[in-house]
Every structure is written in structure tokens, then in C-alpha cells.
Amino acid sequence: MRVTATDQFMLEPIIEPNRDQGTSRDAIGLGQAAGKGLNTRHGTILTLEDISVSFDGFKALNDLNLYIGVGELRCIIGPNGAGKTTLMDVITGKTRPSHGKAWFGETLDLTRMSEVQIAQAGIGRKFQKPTVFEALSVFENLELAQKTDKSVWASLRARLGGEQKDRIEEVLDTIRLSASAQRPAGLLSHGQKQFLEIGMLLMQDPQLLLLDEPVAGMTDAETEFTAELFKRLAGKHSLMVVEHDMGFVGSIADHVTVLHQGSVLAEGSLEQVQENERVIEVYLGR
Ligand SMILES: Nc1ncnc2c1ncn2[C@@H]1O[C@H](COP(=O)(O)OP(=O)(O)O)[C@@H](O)[C@H]1O
Ligand SMILES: [Mg+2]
User: Fold this and answer.
1) Is residue 5 in a domain?
2) Given phi > 0 = left and psi -120 to 50 = alpha, else beta, which region is 205?
3) 266 and 170 in one domain?
4) Atom 18 in ligand 1: which residue has the minimum CA distance?
5) Which of 85, 240, 241 should be mutated for ligand 1, with most atoms under 8 A from CB?
6) Burial per residue of 135-153, b for 16 or more beta-carbon CB atoms within 10 angstroms, e otherwise
């Protein structure tokens, strides 16, 4: 492929990606265009090639190849145990592949970076269960997410700069929680907590957002808003969404990847993959 092997994870220094976006005032207030600050010359933000992960000889990922375009909104579907979560673990550095290539942009080798380095380089992950600080207000949660050093609780009491405040207001507006800014996060509905957590990710201006089953447990209205939100975020960010809810997948994704037994079984529009014989076999069980 386009990237040749190197002993360093970084071939050339990246510009601090999206660390100074407090003043951005673009259409939806979500920071820079996707891919900026990263070397994504070929329009690919994520390249996975021949990725394998073994657990005691069992191959959770098996020579997986996957490419995500800059600004793309990709849905990953597949039966339980297909390797979807393991895939996210590999991208975020939580699990190391036994072999294969994983590049973020053209120059960052994810297999050589720590989880912290990967997060700092611009990959944000949302787990299924929201992990907001329940005793803090919605506003404070976002404020804390903006901080690089999360241990500095005292900084909550320090005065916020105008730009930081504007940025928080923008994100509050994006996730439709402006009216609840001063409420303790613990009082939010399950769906609102999910939105807050997405907002906390956005405070870090990630290039690539990984979302594992984001609409599980949401009401229909919340699911609809999530679809709208993701469509707005795409283009500015690249999104990889693992989801079982086919109605939701159909409403957001123009490109779907079906995983099965650790490999890509099919790729295309939802309609295309739903007509694929092998996909039908896997979902209906032969
Ligand atoms: N830490 C682990 N140790 C052993 N097996 C694992 C581990 N993590 C995942 N697996 C196995 O790998 C396969 C893929 O799991 P997972 O990525 O969680 O699938 P999915 O998210 O698509 O349901 C499953 O068979 C699972 O049991
Ligand atoms: Mg999973």
C-alpha cells in the first residue's frame, strides 16, 4: 500500500491536531474539517490491513482489511462475536494485533502508539455505557473533558477563558443540552447522558470518533436525534459506528461493513449488503 514500514510510529511530526479550537465558528461549531492536522493525502483517515488478533489461538480478527475515508460515516454491523468490539480495541490501542498494519492518516502507526497517544492524536471512543460525572453539572462535565490534565479538579474553580466558554456553549447547543447546562448530570435521562458523553468527546475535537452501539436503550426520539447529530458530525469528523439497530443504520450510513468471524464479509450500501447471499446466510443461520 501507500505507507511503507518504518521503525517509528511517526514519519513526520503532526501539527497538534485540533487542540486550539476554542474559537472556531464554522457552520456547526465543531472544530476543523475532518482530517486537518493529520496527513491524509489519499483521503483515507484509517487504514487496517491484514489485522489479526488471537485469544489463546482463537482468531477474534482474521486478516481484516478496512479503510475509512476522511469525513466518512461508516457503520459496522455483524452478529455477536464477529469482532466489532475487538476491532475498536485494536484502533484505540487497547488490544495489539498479532500482525497487520493499522495507520491513522498516512503517518501514524497505531500499533506502535499507546492508548493515550492514540487519544491525543485524535481518536475518540464512546463506550456503550455512559461514563459521565453524575455529581457534576452538565457544563462542568464538558469543562472537565476540555482539560488535558483531568486530575486538576481545582481547575474547575479557576476562571474559564471566554473562548473555552464559547466552545462549551457551542457543544451544549450541538448536543441539545443548553437548557440543562447547570443540572447535575446524574439527573439526565439515559439518552441525554449519551449525548453528554458525545459532547465530552467533541470537546477534544477528535478526527475519528468510534461509537459502540450508541442508540441502545434510547427512545425513538433520541435515536432520531442521534441520527441527525451523526449526519451533522460527518464531514467535520470521521465516524465509525457499531450498531445493531438496522433502522438506525439505514437512516445514517451510505456505507456499511459487515463483519463475520473476524473478517469483512461484505461492504456497500445497506441495501446492497442486505441482498448479499453470504450476509443473509450469516444473519438467518443456515
Ligand atoms: N479478551 C478476550 N479473551 C478471549 N476471547 C475474547 C476476548 N475478547 C473477545 N473475545 C472473543 O472474540 C470474539 C469477538 O468478540 P467481540 O469483538 O467482542 O465481538 P462483537 O463485538 O462483534 O460481538 C468473540 O468470540 C469473543 O468471545
Ligand atoms: Mg461488541
Assistant:
1) no
2) left
3) no
4) 85
5) 85
6) ebbbbbbbbbbbeeeeeee
Task: Give distance in angstroms: CA of 76 to centre of ligand 1.
Answer: 15
Both 141 and 280 in one domain: the answer is no
Return d(Cα 260, Cα 262) in angstroms, integer: 5
* 286 residues of the chain, pLDDT tens digit each: 343 333 334 433 333 344 333 333 232 333 344 555 677 767 899 999 999 999 999 999 999 999 999 999 999 999 999 999 999 999 999 999 999 999 999 889 999 999 999 999 999 999 877 789 999 999 999 999 987 555 555 555 566 777 888 999 999 999 999 999 999 999 999 999 999 999 999 999 999 999 999 998 899 999 999 999 999 999 999 999 999 888 899 999 889 999 999 999 999 999 999 999 999 998 876 5
* Ligand 1 and 4: CB distance under 6 A: no
How far apart CA 30 and CA 170 sit, in angstroms, is: 8
In-domain check, residue 108: yes
Task: Identify whether residues 64 and 109 lie together within a single domain.
Answer: yes
The CATH code of the domain that includes 123 is 3.40.50.300
Domain span at residue 154? 133-187
Number of domains in the chain: 2
Shared-domain flag, residues 48 and 124: yes
**Burial class (CB within 10 angstroms; exposed 0-12, middle 13-18, buried 19+) of 56:** exposed
Same domain, 118 and 227: yes
Whole-prediction pTM value? 0.83
Q: Measuring from atom 4 of ligand 1, which residue has the nearest CA?
A: 55
Counting atoms of ligand 1 from 1, which one is nearest the CA of 95? Answer: 1
Q: Does 8 reside within a domain? A: no
